Amino acid sequence: MVPDTGRHFALYFDTSSAVCGEPVVELQSSNSALNLAAFREIFSKAKNVAILTGAGVSAESGVPTFRGAGGFWRKWQAQELATPEAFSRNPSRVWEFYHYRREVMLTKNPNPAHLAIAECEERLRQQGREVTVVTQNIDELHRRAGSKNILEIHGSLFKTRCMTCGHEAANYNSPICAALAGKGAPDPDTHDAQIPVEQLPRCEQAGCHGLLRPAVVWFGETLDADVLTHAERVLDRCDLCLVVGTSSVVYPAAMFAPQVAARGVPVAEFNMEDTPATMSFRFHFHGPCGTTLPPALVRHDTEPL
Ligand SMILES: [Zn+2]
Q1: CA 127 – CA 217 distance, rounded (Å)
Q2: Is there a smaller number of Cβ atoms within 10 Å at the N or the C end of the chain?
Q3: For residue 199, what is the DSSP state?
Q4: pLDDT tens, 213-252?
Q5: How many Cβ atoms from other residues are within 10 Å of residue 167's Cβ?
Q6: Which of 140-154, 201-215, 270-284 has the lowest mean pLDDT?
Q7: Which residues are involved in binding substrate (predicted)?
Q8: Ligand 1 centroid from CA 229, angstroms
Q9: What's the pLDDT tens digit per position in 273-300?
Q10: Where do the domains of the chain lie, and which CATH numbers do they carry?
């Protein structure tokens, strides 16, 4: 449906927000205690909670994005390496980049926002209520925090897909293959390892041995249709939607949040950004989501013990 061109979506909505953005956020933050109480009232009754999460949640765990100012791996940013063209030109370099990102994740941990979401999912499940995380993050920190109901719309750093047979598999090996051991250093003066393609990660399906790629959605690629359909079903039936660590007016949350708001379902944002708030997005909690989210999701007085 919608290609993974975050740039397109962000540009479109950024332009519109420049026109209609109003300083509603300021007004809301001055009433933040009232705002929180009102959110909590709705949260305590919600049966199906959809939580859209973005880069901000991972950033609070120190996960680099390789985007924006200072966000470089060697001489490049993610949008130059995370493309099918870059991989076909130089699979060794792209694998070094992903190997580095996988290894970095061994040193990172879920933060209080991930943990609050996971705890909330388990608690509400016991009450016959449902929480689903729809995330653009590929680092699996939600899974490590204990969340189970997760849709990874951009795939995972810890999955591979075979270029020949298409087989997808979980892969937590460190290093992912012998030739990448000790490779992937991010410093700008590091030379490419130039690993021969047959020594890069290869498919282990019987008789295949095809080249593996990271099972993530690259720039210019479309989202997996099944995952997208599932996400839309989740958003269609939710009665409360949280947008965490991103904004509901930029891709990818912008694919989902407006349709939720259009049904009259409350949308609550938890992020660092000054969002062009409209009345359709009911709540906005400004600040690091590791700080703002836990008190919002903690057990409500009216919940059964
Ligand atoms: Zn294969």
Answers
A1: 35
A2: C
A3: G
A4: 999 999 999 999 999 999 999 999 999 999 999 988 888 8
A5: 15
A6: 270-284
A7: 98, 101
A8: 26
A9: 766 655 467 898 989 999 999 999 999 9
A10: 1-62+110-154+222-305 (3.40.50.1220), 64-107+156-216 (3.30.1600.10)
Q: Closest Cα partner for 196 from 92, 93, 96?
A: 92
Q: Are 149 and 142 in contact (CB under 8 A)?
A: no
**Residue 242 β-bridge partners:** 51, 268
Backbone angles phi, psi at 143, to 5 degrees: -60, -45
Cα torsion through 161, 164, 165, 171, rounded to 10: -30
DSSP-assigned letter for residue 61: T
**Nearest to residue 218, comparing CAs of 69, 42, 98, 41?**
98
Of 99, 114, 142, 154, the active-site residue reads 154
Taking 50 as the threshold, does the pLDDT of residue 25 lie above it? no
- The full length of the chain comes to 305
Q: Who's near 81: CB < 8 A, 6+ residues apart?
A: 66, 73, 93, 94, 97
Query: For this structure, is 286 an active site residue?
Result: no
3-state secondary structure of 147: coil
Dist. CA 152–CA 135, nearest whole Å:
5
* Residue at 28: amino acid letter: Q
Q: pLDDT, tens digit, for every residue of 245-266? A: 998 888 888 889 888 988 999 9
CA proximity to 260, closest of 134, 161, 142: 134
Distance in Å, CA 171 to ligand 1 centroid: 14
